[in-house]
């Protein structure tokens, strides 16, 4: 199976080069305004475009992916909420297993159902241990999964969960406070997890300003994922991406 994107991510981690991912929800994006958003992403040197959402109740996934493909060469990685959120036109798929919860359907059940379609898609499949962290507000993921998020101050639980995911063979760990989180994941939690795993660490949810992007990257995040803040103010994109890339240039203290 293809592994170009994942191999590049491993190389970036090795040389401590951080990546910025813009999350685009097909349910929320205005396709008429999508070209302007993609142009901002290109100008800001966004590394990856994540496409997906918790529900995706519209049938716009393929249209959005194809439209983005026609506008830029930034790799498109699907961030699916359900097995049906697969578009063969993307470049890769985060095959998410909710390792922070205890719902067997989201640990393996839905993967069994989706496996034939996912394999047929010919996408690059990146198995990802998905961890929901309490961001101070209910999230769609927590509601649908009927699983409690990891408390924001329980660094050891997050650490052990991430370590277990890595030892079970996950290629990446994604810690997410959820869309619209009132508080982002703490730098202390990011540091604890990052220091104890060797696979790439993704951080998302509640990241509202360039300063938080910078400090998360310095704490050990390999990929910063931002969506909700950009939906509210697209002008933040360039400043956030710049803060992320500047963190890559600073030597580790």
Report on this model:
With 253 residues, the chain is of the alpha/beta class. The protein has one domain (4-246): TIM Barrel (Alpha-Beta Barrel). Helix content is 42%, strand content 17%. The chain is globular, with a radius of gyration of 17 Å.
Top-tier CATH class = Alpha Beta
Percentage of β-strand residues: 15-25%
Shape: globular
Order of helix and strand elements from N to C terminus: HEHEHEEHEHHEHEHEHH
Tally of individual helices = 10
**Separation of termini?**
38 Å
Which bin fits the share of residues in helices? 40-55%
The structure class reads alpha/beta
Outline the fold blueprint.
Layout: H1 4-14, E1 19-24, H2 34-43, E2 48-51, H3 61-71, E3 76-78, E4 92-98, H4 104-121, E5 124-132, H5 140-145, H6 155-167, E6 172-176, H7 187-194, E7 201-204, H8 210-219, E8 223-226, H9 228-232, H10 236-249
Parallel strand pairs: 1-2, 1-8, 2-3, 3-4, 4-5, 5-6, 6-7, 7-8
Helix pairs in contact: 2-3, 6-7, 8-10
Summarize the structure.
The protein has 253 residues and is of the alpha/beta class. It has 10 helices and 8 strands.
């Amino acid at each position: 199976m293809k592994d170009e994107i994942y191999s590049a991510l491993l190389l970036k981690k090795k040389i401590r080069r951080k990546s910025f991912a813009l999350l685009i929800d097909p349910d929320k994006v205005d396709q008429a305004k999508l070209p302007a958003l993609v142009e901002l992403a290109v100008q800001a040197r966004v590394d990856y475009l994540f496409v997906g959402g918790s529900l995706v109740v519209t049938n716009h996934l393929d249209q959005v992916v194809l439209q983005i493909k026609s506008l830029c060469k930034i790799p498109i990685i699907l961030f699916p909420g359900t097995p049906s959120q697969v578009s063969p036109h993307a470049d890769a798929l985060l095959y998410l297993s909710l390792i922070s919860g205890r719902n067997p359907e989201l640990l393996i059940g839905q993967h069994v159902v989706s496996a034939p379609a996912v394999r047929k898609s010919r996408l690059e499949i990146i198995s990802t241990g998905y961890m929901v962290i309490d961001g101070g507000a209910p999230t769609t993921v927590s509601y649908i999964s009927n699983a409690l998020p990891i408390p924001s101050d329980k660094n050891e639980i997050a650490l052990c969960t991430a370590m277990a995911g890595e030892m079970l063979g996950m290629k990446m760990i994604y810690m997410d406070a959820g869309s619209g989180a009132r508080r982002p994941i703490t730098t202390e939690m990011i540091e604890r997890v990052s220091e104890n795993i060797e696979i790439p660490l993704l951080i998302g949810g509640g990241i509202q300003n360039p300063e938080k992007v910078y400090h998360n990257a310095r704490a050990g995040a390999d990929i910063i994922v931002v969506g909700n803040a950009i939906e509210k103010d697209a002008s933040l994109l360039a400043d956030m991406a710049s803060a992320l890339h500047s963190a890559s240039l600073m030597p580790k203290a």
